[in-house]
Input
Amino acid sequence: SATSATFAGWAVILASEAFGDFARSHVAAQALYKLMDCYKEDECGARPAIEGSARLEKVNFCYPSRPEVKVARNLNLIAQNGQTIALVGASGCGKSTVVQLLERFYCPNTGVIKIDDHNIENINRAHLRYSIGLVGQEPILFKGTIIENVSLGVEGVSIEDVRRACRQANAANFIEAFPEGYDTDVGEKGSNLSGGQKQRIAIARALIRNPKFLLLDEATSALDTESEKKMIVRNNCPCYIDFNEYVPQICGTENISRKITSIFYIIQSALNEVSRDRTTIAIAHRLSTIRDADRIYYIENGSVIEYGTHEELIEAGGKYAALVKAQTLSKHE
Output
């Protein structure tokens, strides 16, 4: 009948509108099932008491996706227990590769990495990673409370443990200013927080397990972004109307820059404090942040070109000294 045909037609129309959702759901489900089918990393491997020294000896490495590009070439690094080591060099020189090798995301093609006196490949992965705190360029937060994000992946954490980690990360003041405090929802990907706030939450997360190693991969670089400026305006400027539209001349570009600088120093102060009594390996784009490092390694094309303290490298007048000079000139232009 005509009525049946009409209903059938509407059913087809409604179903066709959902085809896109079905297709996306199918792809998402495939990815989820693939993840669920992944084997759990083996439980074998030694679980030594980790003191906090690391050594890379003649390490060579290529990423599996780019076997023709050698990103580490006879790389030698030493980080003694409790020292702060800085890695500097041009983008793509191999600095972040060191972090990934220490986390055992990859294994070197040749050469040896030792944690204390143990070959890193003989150490249980989970045990190794529990002793490492990582703070990256872009903190990854998940929708949920601050407590949930700080304690992520660590069992048996108390609220006092979370508060302690947040105090160490200079995050307690802004958290406790929120109406819901530590129960504040950070939003999808931390959308309810500024870049500086997200970074301090990430630092607290790295500290919650009291790691022996702290890896800092350009941990303050996100503070230079335009989104950070907009978030500062949104939170501080009475002239602010729309998140995507603000007039720096009205809001005061100088005031915004001063605010970002203030946040930067708050975060850097936290990083300096938490680096004490643990081995820290820092990748820095702001050379002023690593002046006091026990040893600075300048890396080029996957190899260490020069190393020493800030004063030693400046006196040597090599590539590190040239980089410091260039950054100083850029700052005053």
